[in-house]
Hints:
Among the domains are: 1-31; 79-128. Helix content is 45%, strand content 0%. It has helices at residues 5-28, 41-45, 79-93, 98-109, 111-116, 120-128, 137-149, 179-183, 200-203, 214-221.
Amino acid sequence: MSHAEIPRARARCCVAVLLAALGAFWSFAGPGAPTAQARTADELLVDRPLAPTDVNILKTDVYPSGAPLVPAAGNEPSEQQAKAGLDAYLTAEFPGSAASQNAAKAVFDDATAKAKIPSHSLRAALAALTGTVAELPRRHNINAMERLNGGMGSRLGLYATNGNRPIFPGSPTVTATSIWGDVDNGDTVTTPRRPPARLLPRQYPRARRPSLLPGDVQQGAV
């Protein structure tokens, strides 16, 4: 090796050592670090339906082995105690908004609400939801899981799953292999608060296609 080639050889050696060090760092850097084992979202979705890792956050009618929903122990608070707890919550939830606080308090004191929900703590819980968006967490989780697992390949869908596998893997009570299979009860005559599906074409005739001027299209694009 000539004297002129020595610096280039040393430079190549330094680069190799640096790349090796960076590779070792990436291997141990934890979540988010680039690794050879990283998978794309499409690759992960192809493995659906995905089984839950914690059934305790899902509905017990789908996963009966989950933790039971046990009512809170102890004596129920009195009406004064429930109202005091509600007031404290509303003060923290709606600071400086007397209108929001009073709207919730009105629900708690409402005669109809008292007749339908005599439990002071439950009525306070209902009043606390005034002006908020609230869902039962387990139902929300099971619906999200169903939506995630529905579809073929890496695409979401309503009518099939990969390998025709159950949409709720491991569930002893729900064996549907698609979102539609889980929610469809075969009833094509009645629908809650809606006309039967077979009457829709007659009740809602096809609308005429609206005519658009070039200016309308241009404004819509903007």
